[in-house]
Amino acid sequence: ELEKKFGLDTKHASHLVRLLRMAREMLSTGQVHVKRPDAEELLAIRRGEWSYEQIVKFAEDEDEALNELVKNSTLPKVPDREFFDNLVREIVLEFNHAR
User: The pTM is what?
Assistant: First the structure.
């Protein structure tokens, strides 16, 4: 229905823009903002206020920028599996203890 109305799936387009922006945040600051400071613009995209061409141009530009940011990122190249295994274990134990 969205594709018929706007010529693109605006829901997916807004997710694409959000995810690309979150990737930029992670690569440039090491942080990610779940509560989006650009929420209104993302809603505008969802309402069809960005054209297909604008979405494609944004995605292509961001892809290029992200490739450059990856080269200089201080983020680890691989996740610390031991840290995350322990974190998940602690969360599960805490959840089971709270029951």
Answer: 0.78
